[in-house]
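Worked example 3 (structure in, sequence out).
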């Protein structure tokens, strides 16, 4: 008879159905609890519908109260309250493993670890101040240092993150690589065919970090060459619309973020993600799964899915001439011959990519 595995405790800032990291956490909880594993959850903010989704599973909730702002105080209160919960659970379950997706000194397994130094480096390249929230930066730095020395496992999404941890003394056996998978049942090719579409799509809220600025630079060259196309920028907030108005370029539209981005992919002829940095980046996999080619920067970890010209192109954000490089790559993709067979082939490439790589869920099932 198989010995029951000890419970897991997830320490989370928030838990939701949408958002790359939060959705990844919820999927892991659903799968593990669905197999009978007892899951304890301490979360500062639980979005509507999540408790109901877990109602019939062996999930135990431990309420935590924390204000949304300031974020540093929120993280401190979550840590203090979760520490008491974890100490109580460890007395009852000596084999308990504590899992989280953001830096918290309580964690045995830190999933999706992204060093603060990589974000600071990207902000410097974008000409941005190191942090507009110094309190949370101090908190994350402190938690990161403690986890680097104490966590049993640090699980990363990118080669950049792995290299940084190794340089800072984390032993290779404590590091694992995973990807955030794409739901290829949800994201799949639809009509009309790519050749009949007339939109370029870019998704992002920050003009510089997400590469909206160089996309607008590239559009100055692309728009006259492809008069049948328009550029759609999916964003939230006021910064991107203000930048678009200031640029005064033709056939540029902004659109709101929605819960079903596949509706945008279904109208896109090409999807662009020229970010200066991402912890992972869901967009390239989702777009390709919908049969749409992509142009993505190498600074996006999920760009490793692009290995052939029929999938798209990967550009280097070198800091000078990025807009011209992006325009060249976009134009080259737009001039390629498209077909329904290629759309299906792109979808299959994502299915194969996900099957060939460890995911958060498969890692947790094997190690936690």
């Amino acid at each position: 008879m198989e010995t029951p595995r000890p419970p897991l405790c997830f320490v989370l800032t928030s838990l939701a159905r949408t958002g790359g990291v939060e959705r990844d956490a919820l999927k892991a909880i659903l799968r593990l609890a669905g197999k009978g594993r007892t899951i304890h959850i301490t979360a500062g903010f639980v979005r509507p519908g999540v408790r109901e989704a877990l109602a019939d599973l062996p999930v135990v909730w431990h309420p935590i109260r924390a204000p949304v702002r300031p974020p540093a105080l929120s993280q401190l209160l979550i840590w203090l309250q979760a520490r008491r919960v974890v100490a109580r659970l460890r007395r009852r379950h000596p084999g308990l493993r504590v899992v989280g997706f953001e830096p918290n000194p309580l964690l045995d397994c830190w999933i999706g670890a992204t060093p603060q130094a990589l974000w600071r480096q990207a902000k410097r390249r974008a000409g941005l101040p190191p942090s507009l929230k110094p309190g949370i930066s101090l908190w994350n730095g402190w938690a990161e240092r403690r986890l680097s020395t104490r966590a049993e496992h640090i699980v990363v999404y990118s080669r950049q993150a792995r290299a940084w941890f190794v340089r800072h003394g984390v032993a290779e056996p404590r590091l694992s690589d995973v990807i955030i998978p794409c739901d290829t049942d949800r994201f799949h090719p639809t009509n009309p065919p790519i050749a009949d579409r007339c939109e370029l799509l870019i998704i992002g809220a920050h003009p510089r970090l997400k590469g909206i600025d160089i996309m607008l630079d590239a559009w100055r060259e692309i728009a006259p060459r492809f008069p049948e196309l328009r550029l759609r920028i999916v964003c939230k907030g006021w910064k991107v619309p203000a930048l678009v108005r200031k640029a005064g370029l033709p056939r540029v539209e902004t659109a709101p973020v929605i819960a079903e981005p596949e509706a945008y992919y279904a109208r896109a002829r090409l999807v662009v993600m020229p970010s200066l940095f991402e912890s992972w980046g869901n967009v390239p996999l989702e777009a390709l799964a919908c049969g749409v080619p992509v142009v993505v920067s190498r600074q996006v970890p999920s760009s490793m899915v692009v290995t052939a010209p029929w999938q798209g192109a990967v550009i280097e954000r070198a800091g000078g001439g990025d807009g011209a490089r992006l325009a060249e790559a976009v134009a080259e993709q737009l001039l390629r011959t498209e077909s329904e067979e290629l759309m299906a082939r792109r979808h299959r490439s994502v299915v194969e990519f996900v099957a060939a790589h460890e995911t958060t869920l498969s890692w947790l099932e094997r190690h936690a």
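Notes: The mean pLDDT is 93. The chain is about 40% helix and 15% strand.
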